[in-house]
Amino acid sequence: MKFKLLIILSILTLLSLVGIQGYLIYNSYELKQKTITIDARNAIAKIYTSPAIDSIAWLYRTDFLQNLEAYKTNNSTNEALLDALQKKSKEINPGFLEIFNNGLKAYDADFDIQFKKIVTGITLSDSLGNTETLYPKAAKDTIILLGSEMKQTDALLINNSTWQKDHDIMINGKPVTYDLNFKSSIFMNITNWNSLIIRELSTLLFLSTVLFLFVVGLLYYSIQNLLKQKRVADIKTDFINNITHELKTPLSTLSLATKTLTSEYTSGNKEVVDDTIQVIERQNTRLQNLIDQVLKSSLGYQKIQLKNESFNVTTFLNDLLNDYEITVDKNVSINREIESTGLLLNGDSFYLSTAIINLLNNAIKYGGTKLMVTYAIDTVQNSHTISVKDNGIGISKKYHKYIFDKFYRVSEKDTHNYKGLGLGLYYTKQIILAHNGTISVENGKGKGTTFSILIPLAL
């Protein structure tokens, strides 16, 4: 529980750091966005208030006043008045865009700006307070006075302005004063937002990414290391428990035999003494074999000294299985599919027999009653291929990468009671590696496993 809690707290800490880092990056993004927006506004203000732009703006205003007089003297309609305004705006717009774009270049700005000034409302009031709305009208397109078309969703409002003018119009030979209220709005859109923001925040983003990856890597390494240390600790504990159990039986027997020899019952009874001495010799041999197993099986493949010889694998396997079948219970059957290849294998027959017997013993220990030993030549990998297949309880796939480790024993509920020191498969792999070969394991379709050995062909 402490280990799981540590992992959960580590992940939560990492997520918190990511959240804080993301918040800081977002604030930096907003700050840069505001800074760019202010710079763009200043650039537009400097260009728009220039005399050249002002003179262009007066062109559509003067034209609108002339058309307004025609409208009020019934020589034109509201639609014609607005159409004339739109037509005049299109006429003067190329000149405005040229001045505007040149002004941006002169401003030496990195941003690309779209600009538009649109009409938002036009009203006309007389001296009696009567107000007529000239614009907007239903089903009327937006009138762009200056600039270029852009999506309103991308547009950023810069300014709202009102042009107010008292204008006298001669009606029936008498001047009538009208109050013109001409409202407009200025919008902009910075088209290269993404490139500007990325360039401005590139260093911050790079450092944040590197830091994030470093923290994730450190956390991953720490958790992996903790898992490894926990697994090693479990393996050591399991090994100590197993070796203690294995040693306890012969030691108890030796203790009992010693007491028997020193008891009065054995005095003058040569038969009992001889039997007790034989028990001591057997248990001593068992202890010695157990110690030798630990010492020999813990050797790495670099320290295994092979007695290289050339031998026929077909004959070697058949002889090995013939001898092995004598030692197994009658309920265990060993089938074989051994090809007569006639090819020789360069290696140590003693060590290879030890490796194969380890696999056979392992299969029987974990419930295998039907074993299949096969031998063939793998022409693709140019190797001798020996496999041992069983119908035992099998090994979960999640343990496949551990079963060849020193002292490792599968600790699932259905296998934790099986005896052993966890050295058999480790020693088997070291023997195969010493022959420049490989060993792998696969699950069967139902139960059982298949161990496959590949040893290169002699050149």
UniProtKB/TrEMBL annotation:
Segments traversing the membrane: 201-221
PROSITE patterns: HIS_KIN
Annotated keywords: Kinase, Membrane, Phosphoprotein, Transferase, Transmembrane, Transmembrane helix
Histidine kinase domain mapped to chain residues: 242-459
InterPro entries per UniProt: HATPase_C_sf, HATPase_dom, His_kinase_dom, HisK_dim/P_dom, HisK_dim/P_sf, Sig_transdc_His_kin-like_C
Pfam family, one: HATPase_c
Molecular function in Gene Ontology: phosphorelay sensor kinase activity
Catalytic activity line of the entry: ATP + protein L-histidine = ADP + protein N-phospho-L-histidine
Domain of life: Bacteria
The UniProt record lists the keyword Chaperone: no
EC number: 2.7.13.3
Protein name: histidine kinase
Species: Rasiella rasia
